[in-house]
Specification:
This is NB-ARC domain-containing protein. It contains 28 helices and 14 strands. The protein is an alpha/beta fold.
Length: about 625
């Protein structure tokens, strides 16, 4: 017998239906736990993330144990068969659920089918599928879930997804020339979302095509005044284009005759029929985000915080919500940022721009990036200004009032980023950098650290297989200790093991621990740990002439082979003051070549020790080969 649907678009009061058995979850915090599992069906959600939802971002010290108790009680409530759906998976839990076993799964299936039909030109079928998807929505989501954090993160996502689906259906209905039929519903939605320009534009067109041109123009005037008053921004290029077309009567009202079949697409339309031709303004919607590997559950907390800021963060008029993901090379900054960017892509309705700024080794200036961004936004290349200031002004004008997501990867300085900040409005800026970029005004910074042991094991297991890791757990831990929680190093280690199935993990662990040059072992294809460390060393901030050179301090640490060092020890070694020693050590921390101090001592992990040793050897060779040294 087919399992009945599990309703979680409602989630209030939470009623779970599995295996023809209905169970009511009455305890408030257990409802939060169940909602978190449902909203992340078929994905591992960590205990820490569940705790953030249950205690609204302020979990007590006993949170992890209490969450496990709640899960145990949920399993008891669901019964033996249904409770088997909740699986324990480090570092949390996973709820197994088929696509058609939840309202949200069915909702997603209808949307996918609608897109497929639209691609084939079947607008009637596409509209029917979208209507089926929207019919599953009956109330505000998470209405009975006592967690503001969960409602902020997941509820707003669901509401945004619903609005986007409604907009897709309106596009299809307008393409089928059913403009009069959609006016009442659009009027209601625009009253509820007066600053959602996509809806305003659709209502303007529907009114105009229904012979109500004055109402359409009056709606534009009112919306423009509201945007200026509340956001300090003019209407977007898309809405201005609808207004221009109405003024020029470019898209004249038209109603199909009694024997005429509705067109399958607008007049000039061989393209997918998810939007009418009038709506394709001269400015395209770029979609440039690169693909990324599967996300790590160990990063779920950081990913949630980043997504939350990108979807709910608001800034004063004239500023753009900006997030900076920072950390050492190879720690996974780009992967985390791109996961977040893909997750919030639906809220950037006017597109996503992406640029790799090259880092400190090969920095790409804004002067080189702006022409591509302008061309991607629809500016003919022969009309792109030559002057840098004019390019920046045009870029800000094109992006003002729009909802773009701009991702700048591998920034080495704020000077690279500032000219690429989009114009004020609803856009978001996401930057990754090895530097903190503390002088980037208004930016929210997320410091990304190494993976813990559970996260490291998860990553290695995802590459070589959990069974192989489970067969040699101690050897796997030795490999991961050498990799120091650095995802890049772990991926390289996993790749080498995957390429050599005849190697045991124990054998590879011995190679790593006994290698005269450890970093030679952590190299696979075009991936290597050493280039990351070289880039950090190249960007090392130098001190004033009277101070101590941080590069010399790093070399001295390599010669000593130490795991940790204090400022007083460096002061003795270099005959300087403790303040000068601390300044040099802080420069190494800033360059990610030294761990932040704990208990007054700065730490070097296995990778940093190996690299410092290499630098010390290189300096010794240069000094030995120097002509003055040989003459001595």
């Amino acid at each position: 017998m087919r399992t009945p649907p599990l309703n979680f678009l409602l989630l209030g009061p939470l009623s779970i239906r599995l295996n023809v058995c209905e169970v009511h979850v009455s305890a408030p915090r257990q409802r939060v736990v169940m909602a978190a599992l449902l909203l992340n069906a078929n994905r591992v959600i960590s205990v820490d993330r569940i705790a953030e939802y249950v205690w609204d971002g302020a979990p007590p010290p006993s949170a992890a144990a209490t969450v496990r108790t709640y899960v145990m009680r949920l399993r008891q409530s669901l019964g033996e068969t249904a409770s088997a759906r909740i699986l324990t998976r480090a570092p949390g839990y996973l709820l197994e659920l088929g696509e058609h076993e939840s309202d949200f799964g069915r909702f997603t299936a209808h949307r996918r089918r609608a897109a497929e039909l639209a691609e084939r030109g079947d607008l009637e079928g596409s509209s029917a599928e979208l209507a089926e998807a929207l019919a599953l929505w009956r109330e505000e989501p998470l209405v009975d879930i006592p967690s503001q954090t969960l409602r902020d993160v997941e509820g707003r996502y669901l509401q945004e997804l619903r609005l986007q689906t409604m907009e897709l259906r309106f596009d299809t209905e307008l393409a089928l020339l059913r403009h009069a039929e959609v006016v009442p519903e659009l009027v209601r939605l625009v009253r509820k979302h007066p600053l959602r320009e996509a809806l305003v534009g659709k209502l303007m067109l529907a009114l105009f095509r229904s012979g109500r041109q004055s109402e359409a123009l009056d709606l534009y005037r009112r919306t423009r005044a509201l945007l200026v008053e509340q956001l300090g921004a003019d209407p977007s290029a898309d809405l201005r284009e609808v207004h221009r077309r109405i003024l020029s009567a470019h898209d004249r009202p038209r109603t199909p005759g009694p024997l005429e079949q509705p067109v399958t697409a607008p007049e000039a339309a061989p393209a997918p029929a998810r939007a009418a031709a009038w709506e394709r303004s001269c400015w395209p919607s770029p979609a440039q985000l690169p693909s990324v590997p599967l996300p790590l559950s160990a990063r779920s907390g950081a990913l949630t915080r980043l997504q939350h800021f990108l979807t709910t963060g608001s800034m004063p008029a004239g500023m753009v919500a900006t997030a900076v993901v920072t950390g050492r090379g190879g720690v996974g900054k780009s992967a985390l940022a791109l996961h977040a960017a893909h997750a919030v892509r639906g809220s950037s309705v006017h597109g996503q721009l992406y640029a790799d700024l090259g880092g400190a080794a090969r920095p790409l200036t804004a002067r080189a990036v702006l022409p591509r961004f302008l061309a991607d936004l629809g500016v003919p290349r022969d009309e792109i200004p030559e002057e840098a200031s004019e390019r920046e002004s045009l870029y800000r004008s094109l992006t003002a009032g729009r909802r773009l997501l701009v991702v700048l990867d591998n920034a080495s300085s704020t000077a690279q980023v500032r000219p690429l900040i989009p114009g004020s409005g609803g856009s978001r800026l996401l930057v990754t950098s090895r530097r903190r970029l503390a002088d980037l005004e208004g930016a929210r910074t997320l410091q990304l650290g190494p993976l813990d042991e559970a996260g490291s094991l998860e990553l290695l297991g995802s590459i070589v297989g959990p069974a192989r890791v489970g067969a040699e757990p101690q050897a796997a831990r030795t490999v991961l200790t050498v990799c120091a929680g650095l995802p890049l190093a772990i991926r390289i280690a996993g790749t080498r093991l995957l390429e050599r199935p005849h190697w045991s993990i124990g054998y590879f662990a011995r190679r790593l621990t006994e290698a005269p040059q450890l970093l030679d072992e952590l190299h696979a294809g075009d991936l290597g740990v050493r280039p990351c460390l070289d880039a950090d060393h190249a960007g090392l901030r130098r001190t004033a002439p009277a101070g101590v050179d941080p590069a010399e301090v790093f070399t001295a640490l390599g010669t000593a082979g130490t795991c940790s060092v204090s400022g007083s020890r460096i002061a003795v070694m270099f005959g300087c003051s403790e303040e000068q020693a601390e300044e040099a050590l802080d420069a190494l921390v800033e360059a990610n070549l030294l761990g932040a101090p704990a208990g007054g001592r700065y730490q070097l992990d296995a990778l940093l020790r190996a690299y410092a040793h290499e630098r010390a050897q290189a300096v010794a060779v240069l000094q030995h080969d120097h002509p003055y040294m040989r003459a001595g």
